[in-house]
Amino acid sequence: MQEVLLGHLDWNLMHTEANFWHGNVTSFEENDFQILKLLLTKLDTSSDPRSLAVACFNLSQFIQYHTTGRVIVTDLKAKERVMKLMNHENTQVTKNATCASRGCS
């Protein structure tokens, strides 16, 4: 989560570990969902395909593992942001945006 605060998103083991998400998903609630809001901001501001793909993946995992993740992400208007990325030129961005949008609907 530190990487989100620093603005550097990259793939690492914790992103794909179910144990990470089970143990840390409620941390996303801290500071009025600051981490989640930063991920959403990244979707609007980043031009780096890797960062966009990781941000979309993280959103999809939050939706999957948080008991009210879908509602929270919907309230934060994430669907519109993710939908814009579904036609991105990078296939990883498109794939992860599609996964996240399924969780947002």
TrEMBL record:
SUPFAM superfamilies: ARM repeat (SSF48371). GO terms for cellular component: vacuolar proton-transporting V-type ATPase, V1 domain. Keywords: Transport. Pfam families: V-ATPase_H_C. It comes from the Eukaryota. One of its GO terms (molecular function) is proton-transporting ATPase activity, rotational mechanism. The keyword Transport applies. InterPro entries: ARM-type_fold (IPR016024), ATPase_V1-cplx_hsu (IPR004908), ATPase_V1-cplx_hsu_C (IPR011987), ATPase_V1-cplx_hsu_C_sf (IPR038497). Residues 2-99 form the ATPase V1 complex subunit H C-terminal domain. This is ATPase V1 complex subunit H C-terminal domain-containing protein. It comes from Arabidopsis thaliana.
